[in-house]
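idk why but the lab printer keeps eating my pages so im just putting this in chat instead. protein + nicotinamide-adenine-dinucleotide:
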Amino acid sequence: MSKQMSHLDNIPSTPGKFKMDKSPYIHNRLRWHSSLAKLTFWSFMFLGLILIFFFRSPSSNPLPQDPSRRSLRTYNWGGPAWEKRVRSSARIRSRNGISVLVTGAAGFVGTHVSAALKRRGDGVLGLDNFNDYYDPSLKRARQALLERSGVFIVEGDINDSALLRKLFEVVAFTHVMHLAAQAGVRYAMENPGSYVHSNIAGFVNLLEVCKSANPQPAIVWASSSSVYGLNTKVPFSERDRTDQPASLYAATKKAGEEIAHTYNHIYGLSLTGLRFFTVYGPWGRPDMAYFFFTRDILKGKSISIFEAANHGTVARDFTYIDDIVKGCLAALDTAEKSTGSGGKKKGPAQLRVFNLGNTSPVPVSDLVSILERLLKVNAKRNIMKLPRNGDVQFTHANISLAQRELGYKPSTDLQTGLKKFVRWYLSYYSGGKKAAG
Ligand SMILES: NC(=O)c1ccc[n+]([C@@H]2O[C@H](COP(=O)([O-])OP(=O)(O)OC[C@H]3O[C@@H](n4cnc5c(N)ncnc54)[C@H](O)[C@@H]3O)[C@@H](O)[C@H]2O)c1
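predcted complex ->
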C-alpha cells in the first residue's frame, strides 16, 4: 500500500507540465507502455487459445461434478399402469387403517417401517431416489423385500413437486412418514450440498405439497439425536438446548425442526419430529460403525476406535430397529389430524418432538467386544483421538416423554440386537455372493 502511494505521489497532477523529450521518467513510461501493450496482446492470445481449447474439446468439463446433483436425475413415472400400482400399494386393508406415504422407503429405517405398516394392514406407498451415498444394491435388495409384501417404491426425489402432487392426486394419504434424508455426519464435509438438497430443500418441498393437499396429511418425520450437539448435560431431554450442532448434518436436522414449527404455525400441519439415537439392526446402513466394524473384523482389517481427550470414553445410546419402528408407528397412531386444507389454516395443530433412544449408552469399545464374541474373531483395535469432524463424545436419551405420550418402551439390549444383526449380515453377505463395501 505505501509503495503504491509513493508511486502515485510521483505523478504530477497536471500532465501538461511534463517536459516530453528529456525526462528519463517519460522515457521509462514509453518503454513501460510498449511492454504493457505487448503484455496485453499476448494475454489476449493466450485467452483466445484457452477458449478455442474449451469449445473444441468434446468432453472437456472445466467444473468438477457437483455430487449433490446426482439425485436430480429424472425418473420415469406416470401412466395408467403406474397409477394402478400406486393405488394398490396404498390401499388400506384393515379396519381403522391409515394410508401412509413413506419417503426414504428403500433406506434402513424406511424399509422396516414400511414392512411393519403393511403387516398390520395399512396402505403404504414408498418413495426413494436410490442415491449412491452407500451401496445402492442394498437399497435394491430392500426394495425387492418390500415388493414381496406388496409395497411399491416410487423412484423419485422429494424435491420433485410435480411427482409429489401427482401422488397426492392419486391417493388421499392420511399420513406421511418422512424418512428420506442425507444421513451421516462425516460425509457432510465432503458433500455439504447433498444435506441442503435433501434435508432442507427437499423437506420444504414436501411440506409445501402437504400443506396444499386436501385433506392435509399428518406428518411424522425423522430428526436426530445429533441436534443435542455439544451439550454435556445427560441424559438429553427434549427441553434441552439444541443450538450447538457439531456437524452440518445436525444443523440441517435442527433447521428441519424450525421449518416444521413454521408449517405447523402458518398452515396447521400436524407435525411430529422423532430424534432417533444411533439405530442399528438387520438391513442396516453400511456407513455406520457397528456395520463397518463387522465387515472389517471379518476381513482381518484394523478398526479405528475413537477416544475423547484424556482417554475419555466415546459412547452411544444404540437403539434397536424394532424399538424404533414401534416408536414410529406409535407416533403415527397418536398424530392428530392437520387442521388446514388447501393451504389455509383453520385452527391450531399438533406439534411434537420426541427422543427415541434406548436410555443405556454403551462405550464403543464394548460394542467391539460384543462383535468379537459374536463373530468369533479378535478385532485389530486402533485407538485414535476423536476427530473434530462431526462426531460427539456420547449420546444418551431421556425417553420419559415418549414413554408417556407414545407408550414407547425399548426392549432390546445391544447384545441381543447385535446377535440379530450379525445373523442377518452373515446370511446376506454369505458365500462371497455380495461383498460389503
Ligand atoms: N439410522 C440412524 O441411526 C439415524 C439416527 C438419527 C436420525 N436418522 C434419520 O432417520 C432417517 C432414516 O435414516 P436411515 O438410517 O434409514 O438412512 P438411509 O440413508 O438408509 O435412508 C434414507 C433414504 O432416503 C433416500 N433419500 C435421500 N435423499 C432423498 C431425496 N432427496 N429424495 C428421495 N429419497 C431420498 C435414500 O436413498 C435412502 O434410501 C433419516 O432422516 C436419518 O437422518 C437415522
